[in-house]
Structure formats: C-alpha cells, structure tokens
C-alpha cells in the first residue's frame, strides 16, 4: 500500500471483532481507502454470530492483495480450530447453533489459516516505535480487559510496548498510564456500547509521538439483519441469533443479558444451561 503520509507520519488502522459482519467491514474498508491509511491490523474474531463467514474471510484476503496487513486470532477462531482438531460436534439450538452454522459454512483452508495465526504479536514497521496487538491477553484470547475494573491497569503494568491494541470486549476505550497507551478499537461487527455504528481505530505515528483516534462508521444494518432470515442462521441458533439482531439494531448487550438470565433460570430450576425452553423464556423476558 505504502501511502506513508506527509511529514514522515504513518497511519495504522485496527479492526477487531468483525464477527462475519460483511457490511460493517466494507464500511471500514471504504474509510481506510479514503483516509489513505498505510497498514491494517486485525485483532481476531473474524467470524461467527452473523451469516456467511466465508464471504468475510474472502473480503479480508482480497483487501490484503493491495494493502499490507497483520493478523492475530481471536477466541472464535480458536473455537473452530478446537472443533476441527478434536472432532467437537456443536449442536443446533440457542446455545451452540451459531457456532455450528459457522463451522459448517467454513472450508478446511479457513481452519488452516486460523491455525497459522498467533494469539498476540509485536509489530515493528520501519523506524517507528513497535506496538503490540492481541485479541484479549498476551497468552489467552478470552481475557477481558476493560477500564471499568483493574484489568486495564493490570495489563498496562506488564505491557511490553508503548502502545498495545486489543479487542474482545466489544467496547472501545483509550487508556493512558505511566507513559503507555492501551487501546481498544471496539467492534467492527457487533458493538455493544450503546452504539450501532461500525467501530475501529486509527493510530498516527510520528517519529516521537503516537496519536490514537477512535472511529465510528455507519453501514447498512438492515441488510445485515435481513441476511439472518435468508441464510438459515435463525433456524440453527434461534434465541442467540435474535440477541445478535437486537444488538445490531440497538447497540445494547443483549447476548450477555440473555446468558445471565439463562444461568439464573438454570440455577432456579435445576435444568441444564442448554435447555432450549430456558433460552426461550429468557428471550421472552428480554422482549426479543
């Protein structure tokens, strides 16, 4: 790509948690092209939750033909890897149906690509300060790092580079402490911070300064919702798919609310967490 902006500045885009939302991803790509961004870093969770995962993977690979990109894996890629390597059989229904749909709609080459990706990485470009990327923690993609508890502070104390960018929580933040910067770009595909627009970050590097910027972009949410009905994903995942649709429409964290309700109902009734009736009851309580 090699735009390398004037005054020896370098712009890097960070995309996390696409979750097969092709329409949101396309909006990010349009912004990247228009803004003449030099490099793109992906922070994992490319697939699951929305339909047509291969379409998103192909879009990511096609974009890389003319852009220099860096990749790591997220927990959703690890779920697919583990299912493939250990012959794990996901089941239809609200608990696992979305994972089953995704797994059945991936190719062996997609799984092989996931397996090739690291959990975290340090990126060094030219003479600019190196920076770190991960989905969650350095060694565990499922670690949730936020600024509403001590996890961001705990992370930044052991941070290996001046800038580190991570995802997983779907909630954007910029945290600075002790001369270090910890950045979460939010979620491209399934934002849950009360906002419905695609989220990403752009960091401008000068020789001695790092300037992060959180970006929100509109996209065709109606098209993304419509594809749940066209793809058959609702038939696989029912309540879980409905929580994702509700998130796309409102930006509210409906899947987490649903999980907590199902857990509560499970404890109260003594029935298994996977019991479909519990999920249906939780959906009714949430009004979705």
Concise account of the structure shown:
The protein is α/β, with parallel strands linked by helices and 288 residues long.
Structure description:
The chain has 288 residues and is α/β, with parallel strands linked by helices. It is built from eleven helices and ten strands. Helix 10 crosses helix 11 (276-286). It is globular. The mean pLDDT is 96.
Characteristic terms for this protein:
288 residues; 5-stranded mixed beta sheet; 18% strand; alpha/beta
How is the secondary structure organized here?
Blueprint: E1 10-15, H1 22-34, E2 39-42, H2 53-63, E3 68-71, H3 75-86, H4 97-104, H5 108-116, E4 120-123, E5 131-134, H6 151-157, E6 163-166, E7 173-177, E8 180-184, E9 198-205, E10 210-217, H7 221-231, H8 233-237, H9 239-250, H10 254-269, H11 276-286
Parallel strand pairs: 1-2, 2-3, 5-6, 6-8
Antiparallel strand pairs: 1-9, 4-5, 7-8, 9-10
Helix pairs in contact: 1-2, 3-5, 7-9, 10-11
